[in-house]
Amino acid sequence: MLVYPVGVDLSTSALRFLARELTARRRERGTRWRRLPAGRQALLVLAHLRSGHTYAQLAAGFGVGTATAYRYIAEAVDVLAALAPTLAQAMKTASTKAYVILDGTLLPSDRIAADRPFYSGKHKKHGMNVQVITDPAGRLLWASPALPGAVHDIKAARTHGIVDALDEVGVECWAAKAYRGTGGTIRVPYWGRWTTLSAGQQAVNRSHAKIRALVEQAMAPLKAWRLLRKLRCSTTRITSLVQAVLTLHLNCSN
């Protein structure tokens, strides 16, 4: 295999943050020696998450075995995922905001046609459903555990307890038509054809759409991590990957 140097479009703050957490993990476990120091392990993991390089590619580039690269990545992902904010913590932050925005996204995966639970009829592809909550400026506050792509957004919101959590803290939430009937503090646009809505309802829907458009600013940082653009791992690991990326985004954003 040919090996060549390649850059990763991340700031050094992400590398320092992850290296610091891995060093603490090694001290906690009493690890005396590793093939790669914490800084190099952190770089390997970031290259995997950000650029989507395979275990074999990373193993060749860092001079370790493929199994070792896998273990390094799995360890770091678990460390990062454990630091991701819970829904309760996100609600504590949300309670200080004027309102929040809720939306769902599909993370495409390599599931096959036989894997019907992972097929999203809305997006016409296989993947995993992830719900995100942002503040009024479009900054990401929380990302949910991943559910099969066939799960509807409104069901996902109820499954994760988002509706009850928002209602408990009394924070208004703007959401899409897919959440119609959710209740609580979740606000959705008026339902119906544009021509059948009154002028006032149309104005409300336009205003609603402008507010909701900010959620795309929160989706973009998630999709910037190329590993999440086409998931090729076990579906049981996807939640940890999303939470790991969320932790890096919240702690290392400029």
From TrEMBL:
* Keyword S-adenosyl-L-methionine set for record: no
Q: Name one GO molecular function term.
A: DNA binding
GO BP of this protein: DNA recombination; transposition
Needed cofactors? a divalent metal cation
Q: Which intervals hold domain DDE Tnp4? A: 102-249
**So which domain of life are we looking at?**
Bacteria
Cross-referenced Pfam families, in alphabetical order?
Answer: DDE_Tnp_4, HTH_Tnp_4
UniProt keywords, alphabetically: DNA recombination, DNA-binding, Metal-binding, Transposition
**Residue ranges constituting the Transposase Helix-turn-helix domain according to the UniProt record:** 35-84
Q: Which family does it belong to?
A: Belongs to the transposase 11 family.
> What is this protein called in UniProt?
Transposase
